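For practice. Any example?
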Amino acid sequence: MTTELKVTFTANPGAQEDFVKCQDPFPAFVGGFGSGKTAAGCLKVFGYMLTNPGANG
């Protein structure tokens, strides 16, 4: 069974966008409360899983 999911997310310009687009093996996003760390991290994991089918999140 295949499920299609459409997610629309635009990273905030600056650190959040840089983190999401970063290709380094061990990126880090440090920021204060409400800076979007969790959202950016989730988006990065989802993107990885979509480009690497069968990967464990």
The helical segments are 15-21, 37-51. The mean pLDDT is 86. The chain has two helices and no strands.
